[in-house]
Amino acid sequence: MACKSIPFLYLLTVLMAKTGVDATIGVNWGRESAQRLIPSQVVDLLLQNGVKEARVYTSRTDLLQAFGGSGIGLMLSVNDLSILQDYHECMTWVQSRMPYFNVSSVRRIYVGNNPFVMGLLNNRAGLKENMDAMYNLQKALNDADWGHQIKVVVTHSSSQLKPNITKPSEAEFRDEIKPELSETLRFLEQNNAPFVVDMIPPVDLLIYKMDTSFAFVGESTQVIKDVNGAIYTNIFEFMYDAYVWALIKLKAPKIKVIVGQVGWPTDGYSGGNASTVERFFKGLLPYVSSNKGTPLRPGAPIDTFVHALTDENKMPNDIMRHWGIYHSNGKPKFKIDLMGLGRDIYPSSAKGIMRMPERWCVFNGNQTDYPMVQKQFEHACKNSDCSSLNPGGSCSDIGPNQSVSFAFNMYFQFKFQDENACSFNGLSIITVENPSTPKCMFPIEVVRGQQENYVKPTPKAKGYHQSPNCVVSLFLLSLLGAFFWN
């Protein structure tokens, strides 16, 4: 694009910003956990907290049934592209879900998992497969007369932007994905679908060398000045307008941009704790609900989805397991007003949750065969979730014996307190004395619910949904201990 055309497109972006529509605050719900709330409980929880829209990482019909009649706008996901290979398969999929589209208020369908990362990794075939699935599914929806209500989208992350920007106006998409991205933008515009971005504030602060206070709306000690008098005081506005500038440079100045996920982990590294997450959302959500917009799009509503409703302790990477507002027992970890009114409140707790008996599996202290202790510790962690033991995590300083106990108990709870799961070659005992410390909670999990009623991805599927959304983010988050609070 010629540089001289940028000012006109910039002006068009500003003029198109005001819409008179209020921003929506939604919540994402993933189910990669050993203990899982059942869909009806989740629907009730969302309604109690005034949540108007939800994104789920599946399209299972039992979940669609649970949301039916709730009035909650629903965003579905299809990660298994093997069922969307061509138009006819897409139409078959649409027909199988059509009975639920209206009653379950389906609004969007996410296809794949941040597919443009494949383009950055030079997997052009994988990117093309995802794009073809997106195009064919939207065509099938249009032909079935559902295209006016349901839009097919994919997610985008900051890994798609060129690095080393110091202000939003410098943002531009990477050259290696521009052809496919331009094609996708035309598709989204033709179908009146939004451009969905995923924000990972801890990562973006690190990438762009921001002061930590820049994460929190209304608290920053850092100010970034940009063209046309724009001033940025928080990472959310900075990143949002960075995407808008990049879109302007690809001749898509009017496309609606929504935030498909934004969050902060509560454990697993030194910057992850409930108080920081509470502080983050206390500033962000009232800002979103105010419809203030950004310097580049003043007055524009920014639909924003909080990530996530619950922890997912079976996600493949440690840092991806602690993004939930709620523990698995349905109790909130921190205060958050999901209506964006700025109230200093805990969200409503889930109803009908039954905890298992108050008993824990712990290390008996026998260290005569240390290699065996190490082996059993590693086995327990490999098959449960020991991410709280990571440096900077909530249980990182409890000492070696307690660390082994923590691992044993996590495995025991993952197995729903099956006594056979507390053997560990004679190195463990079951106790009714709570081994938790002031900082480190040894959890008791909930009674088995819908855990077995879950279908794992097929070999052709793109695997787990990402939270956060790309492999690069996982690497960067591993470095955060050197950057954030201790």
Keywords:
alpha/beta, single chain, 486 residues, TIM Barrel, two-stranded antiparallel sheet, disordered C terminus, nine-stranded parallel beta sheet, 2 domains, globular, 11% strand, 13 helices
Description:
It is a single chain. This protein is an alpha/beta fold and 486 residues long. It has two domains: 3-352 and 455-482, Alpha-Beta Barrel (TIM Barrel), CATH 3.20.20; 360-431, no CATH class. The strands form three sheets. It has a nine-stranded parallel β-sheet with strand order 5-4-3-2-1-11-10-7-6. The two termini are 46 Å apart. The protein is 31% helix and 11% strand. The longest helix has 20 residues, at 124-143. Strand 2 (53-56), helix 3 (61-67) and strand 3 form a beta-alpha-beta unit.
Q: Let me know the CATH homologous superfamily of the largest domain.
A: Glycosidases
How many domain modules? 2
Determine the number of helices (DSSP H or I, runs of at least 4 residues).
Answer: 13
DSSP, total strands: 13
Assign the CATH class of the largest domain: Alpha Beta
EC number: 3.2.1.39
Enzyme class: hydrolase
GO molecular function, one term: glucan endo-1,3-beta-D-glucosidase activity
Protein name: Glucan endo-1,3-beta-D-glucosidase
